[in-house]
Structure formats: structure tokens, C-alpha cells
Design goal:
Order of helices and strands: HHHHHHHHHHHH
Strand content: under 5%
CATH class of the largest domain: Mainly Alpha
Number of domains: 2
Radius of gyration: 18 Å
Oligomer: single chain
Helix content: 55-70%
Number of strands: 0
CATH superfamily of the largest domain: Tetratricopeptide repeat domain
């Protein structure tokens, strides 16, 4: 996603305009200290990574806890890479380990799909999305990401279909509307593109997606209001 983030701080904000993935939380765990920070995140991706590393170091053989920590550290790794050197290998390695520990972890597959997407590995990103959706077919974020990848591959009809499915599954977010608008625009359906850009702006009027929508509407000669 050429820019998917919701503003939630510094490094983490870099992702959420670009990255529609959430970290996993375990409501049954006794959450405190590093575990709380690892499960629910930190505005500073480096601190988030450190918290999850602390959990991994102290979890022993608790495979469930280790899986959560690796899944969430991989998510934080993506944020850190987007804020810095764009090296997503650490994120992929962490999600590999999370999947080894829990082969049915839909979140780990989706996080790894994002890391592979940012790395330009579209075929394996699509395979990870397929796996994630096989375990959690009601997750709209997988369809949102698949929409963006298909658009990048110029499979515009497939991109439009995936974005619509994401919305049907409850992922009616500004980044989905931006992706859908861009796919419509690339396919030549300017009226639908304008409608979706306006929708994106209404969903995120003061954020990065809203600004991106306004720029697109200006480019198309449409009124943003």
C-alpha cells in the first residue's frame, strides 16, 4: 500500500497508513510489564521490539506465549523497517518462527504477507494471504492487502473485487477506499474513483489517507466536499 498508516505515534504510524494488520492479543494471559507492551504495542517500534524480545527470552518452552511474542515482534519489525532501512528480513524470520510454533496463526501469515509485499515478493505474499484467509475467512484485512497487490500487478478487476469483499467483511477503512479508488481510476472508471476518493476523505478527514484523497480529487478536477 503506497502509504497505509493510521496515526498512532512515530514509527508505528508509518505502518498504519500502509499496513492494515493488527497484532494478536491473548486475553487469557496474565498481562503485565513486557508482555503487556508486546501484546498491545508501543508508539516506539524499537521499544515494542525490545518488549517482545524480553518475553521471548523469559517464556521458556511456553509455545503459545512464544508464538504471540514472535507474531507481534514481526509486526513491530515491519514498522521499524518502514521507518528506517526497509529491511523486512527480520519481520519475515519472526513470522516464520511464529508459524512454526502455531501453524494455524492467521495473524502471523498476514503479517508475513505484508512483509513480503513490502519486499516485492508478490507471489509468496499472495500465498500467505491465502493461508491466512483459510484459517480466518472473515478477516477483511487479507482481502484489502490482496486488492493492493492485484492492483500493483495490473489485475484491476481482481483488485476491485477484493476491495469490495474487504468492505463486505467490515474492513471499510480509508486505506481500502483509497486502494479501490486507485483501481477504478486505473481502469478508467473515473466516476467510481471520485466516489471512493470522497469516501476515503470522509473516513479519514484529518489523516494521511484523507490528504491523499484530496490530492487525488484535485488531480481529477473534482470537488473534495
Amino acid at each position: 500500500m503506497a502509504g497505509a498508516m493510521t496515526v498512532r505515534g512515530l514509527a508505528v504510524a508509518l505502518v498504519l497508513l500502509l499496513l492494515p494488520v493488527t497484532a494478536r492479543a491473548d486475553d487469557t494471559a496474565n498481562i503485565n510489564g513486557a508482555l503487556r507492551h508486546c501484546e498491545y504495542g508501543d508508539d516506539d517500534a524499537k521499544a515494542w521490539i525490545a518488549a517482545c524480545t524480553d518475553v521471548i527470552s523469559s517464556a521458556g518452552t511456553d509455545s503459545a506465549l512464544l508464538s504471540i511474542a514472535y507474531t507481534n515482534r514481526g509486526f513491530a519489525d515491519i514498522n521499524f523497517a518502514l521507518a528506517g532501512d526497509n529491511d523486512f528480513s527480520k519481520a519475515i524470520a519472526d513470522e516464520d518462527e511464529a508459524i512454526r510454533l502455531n501453524p494455524k496463526d492467521d495473524v502471523a501469515y498476514l503479517n508475513r504477507a505484508n512483509a513480503r509485499w513490502y519486499s516485492g515478493d508478490y507471489p509468496r505474499a499472495l500465498a500467505d494471504i491465502e493461508q491466512s484467509l483459510s484459517f480466518n475467512p472473515a478477516e477483511g484485512k487479507g482481502h484489502s492487502l490482496r486488492c493492493e497487490i492485484y492492483a500493483k500487478m495490473n489485475r484491476l478487476a481482481d483488485a476491485i473485487s477484493e476491495c469490495k469483499q474487504a468492505v463486505r467483511l467490515g474492513n471499510d477503512k480509508a486505506y481500502t477506499a483509497i486502494d479501490l479508488a486507485a483501481a477504478y481510476e486505473a481502469s478508467g472508471d473515473i466516476a467510481e474513483a471520485i466516489a471512493q476518493y470522497r469516501h476515503a476523505q470522509s473516513l479519514d478527514p484529518d489523516g494521511g489517507y484523507g490528504r491523499k484523497a484530496v490530492q487525488a480529487l484535485d488531480r481529477l478536477g473534482a470537488n473534495a466536499q
